[in-house]
Write a structure and sequence with these properties.
Layout lengths: L9 E10 L2 E2 L1 H9 L6 E2 L12 E2 L15 H20 L11 E4 L7 H13 L6 H7 L4 H7 L3 H10 L6 E3 L5 H14 L5 E8 L4 H9 L29 E9 H6 L6 E10 L12 H14 L8 E3 L6 H15 L6 E2 L2 H4 L6 H15 L1 E2 L22 E2 L4 E8 L3 E8 L4
Parallel strand pairs: 5-6, 5-7, 10-11, 10-14
Antiparallel strand pairs: 1-2, 1-8, 1-9, 3-4, 7-8, 9-15, 12-13, 14-15
Helix pairs in contact: 2-6, 3-4, 7-13, 10-11
Enzyme class: transferase
EC number: 2.3.1.179
GO molecular function: 3-oxoacyl-[acyl-carrier-protein] synthase activity
C-alpha cells in the first residue's frame, strides 16, 4: 500500500514509554488521562540555593540503595526499558536480532558532577589540588567514565543489545529530538532502505548543571511550593517549564510487511514536516514562519487539509513566549476552526530530547482510545491564547488524524502527523 506520493506507508506496530508517571504504558497512559501530575521535589541531589527545586524525575529501582546514575547511564537504562516494551508489543524479531536500523534521539553527554567529584577525590588522594590538569591525569585508565561520555556510545550499546542492522544513527535537535528520530526512521523506510526501524527519544538530564543552565535562561518554573501545579501550559499565570525525564520507543514498519506477518497496526506515520529558522540560540523567530512552515509541511506530506486534523498534541511548554507562539502558529494554519489542542507537559513536564517521541506515542494512544488527554492546571484563561486546550479533564472524541508539534531551542521545529489505519 502506498501513500499519495507513491511511497510505502509507514506503520507503527510497537510502543514503549518510561515517564515520571510510571514504567510502561500501562502505568503512564491511565495516569495521563486522569490528569495526574508526575512533578515532584528533587531528592537526587542537594537543591539548596537553587531557584528551581522540582522536576519530573524517573527514579530507578537500583538507585534506592545506591548512588544516582549519571545522565548517560540513565538515558541508556530507560531507553532499554522503552525499547523492550515496544518490541514486546510488536512481536517483531527475536531478542537481540532486530531486522532494521536504530535511530536514537538523545541529549549531548558530558562528564557530570559524580564523576568530577570522583576525579577530584583521586587527585586529593595523590596529594594534589583538584585542578583541571590533576583531574585529567586522574582520569587515565578510567574506562567507565570514557564509555559513559563517548558521544555515540549509548547508540552503539543499544544497537548491540537489540541486534539492530547497520550503524545506529544518533541525533540531537534540542526539544525536537524525539520527533526528528521518528522522521529519520520514516524516511529510511519510505526510501526502501529497510522494512523496519526502531525510533527512540530519551532524556535523563535532571542534574545540577542542566538545571542551573535552564534556570539562568529564566526558562524554568519556580513554583516550588506546589510541584504538581507548577507546569501550566497556555494558562494565564504560566511562568516557565518544568524539567523532566523519560523515554519512548516506536517500532516502525513498511505497512505491507507488517500486514504480511500478521502484525497489529496501531497507527500510520502519515506526514513529517521540518523547518528551522536559525534566529537565536534559544528563541524562535517572532514571525513564526518556521513554526507555521513545519505544521504546513507535515500536513502537505500527509496529503491532508487542516480540517482533516482531529486533535493537536501541543509542544505546550508553559513558557510565556512559546505558548503564545504556538497559538499564533495554530491560528495561521487552522484559522478560526482550530482543532482541540492539549499539552502532556502539564502532567509529565518537559522531557526535552524525549518529548517528541513520547508525544507521538500519546498521539497514537489518543487515536486508539478516542480520548484526548487534558491540559491540567488550567485555572485562569489567558486572553492571548484563543485555542481549546482541553482544560483539566480528558475528553472523548473520534480521532483519525493527530498533529504532534515539537518546537526546539534554536528554532529547530519538527511536526508529525499520526493517523488511524486506512479503512
Amino acid at each position: 500500500m502506498k501513500d499519495h506520493l507513491g511511497r510505502p506507508l509507514v506503520a507503527v506496530t510497537g510502543l514503549g514509554a518510561v515517564t515520571p508517571l510510571g514504567f510502561g504504558l500501562d502505568e503512564t497512559w491511565p495516569a495521563l488521562l486522569a490528569g495526574r501530575s508526575g512533578i515532584r521535589r528533587i531528592t537526587r541531589f542537594p537543591t539548596e540555593h537553587l531557584r528551581t527545586t522540582i522536576a519530573g524525575t524517573v527514579d530507578l529501582p537500583e538507585e534506592a540503595t545506591g548512588e544516582p546514575l549519571t545522565s548517560p547511564r540513565r538515558v541508556e537504562r530507560i531507553a532499554t526499558l522503552a525499547i523492550e516494551e515496544a518490541l514486546g508489543m510488536s512481536g517483531l524479531g527475536q531478542l537481540g536480532s532486530f531486522p532494521g536500523p536504530l535511530f536514537v534521539g538523545m541529549p549531548p553527554v558530558e562528564v557530570e558532577w559524580p564523576d568530577r567529584l570522583s576525579l577530584a577525590r583521586a587527585a586529593l588522594a595523590r596529594g594534589e589540588e583538584p585542578t583541571y590538569r590533576a583531574m585529567t591525569a586522574a582520569a587515565a585508565g578510567r574506562h567507565d567514565i570514557h564509555d559513559t561520555v563517548l558521544g555515540f556510545g549509548i547508540g552503539e550499546r543499544l544497537s548491540a543489545r537489540f541486534g539492530t542492522r547497520g550503524a545506529p544513527v544518533s541525533i540531537t535537535t534540542a526539544c525536537a529530538t524525539g520527533a526528528s528520530s521518528i522522521q529519520l526512521a520514516v524516511e529510511a523506510i519510505q526510501r526502501g532502505e529497510c522494512t523496519a526501524a526502531i525510533a527512540l527519544g530519551a532524556d535523563g538530564t535532571v542534574q545540577p548543571e542542566s538545571l542551573i543552565r535552564f534556570s539562568l535562561l529564566s526558562a524554568l518554573s519556580t513554583r516550588n511550593d506546589e510541584p504538581e501545579r507548577a507546569s501550566r501550559p497556555f494558562e494565564k499565570h504560566r511562568a516557565g517549564f518544568v524539567m523532566s525525564e523519560g523515554a519512548a520507543a516506536l517500532i516502525l514498519e513498511d505497512y505491507d510487511s507488517a500486514i504480511a506477518r500478521g502484525a497489529k497496526v496501531l497507527a500510520i506515520v502519515s506526514g513529517c514536516g521540518e523547518r528551522a529558522d536559525s534566529f537565536h540560540r534559544t528563541r524562535s523567530n517572532p514571525d513564526g514562519n518556521a513554526v507555521i512552515g513545519a505544521m504546513r509541511v507535515a500536513l502537505s506530506d500527509a496529503g491532508l487539509r487542516p480540517e482533516d486534523i482531529s486533535y493537536v498534541n501541543a509542544h505546550g511548554t508553559g513558557t510565556p513566549e512559546n505558548d503564545k507562539m504556538e497559538n499564533f502558529g495554530m491560528r495561521a494554519v487552522f484559522g478560526d476552526n482550530a482543532p482541540p489542542i492539549s499539552s502532556n507537559k502539564s502532567m509529565i513536564g518537559h522531557t526535552l530530547s524525549a518529548a517528541g517521541a513520547l508525544e507521538a506515542v500519546f498521539s497514537i494512544l489518543t487515536i486508539r482510545d478516542g480520548r484526548m488527554p487534558p491540559t491540567i492546571n488550567y485555572d485562569e484563561p489567558d486572553p492571548s491564547i484563543t485555542l481549546d486546550v482541553v482544560p483539566n479533564t480528558a475528553r472523548d472524541a473520534t480521532v483519525r488524524h493527530v498533529l504532534s508539534n515539537s518546537f526546539g531551542f534554536g528554532g529547530q521545529n519538527t511536526c508529525l502527523v499520526l493517523s488511524a489505519e486506512p479503512r
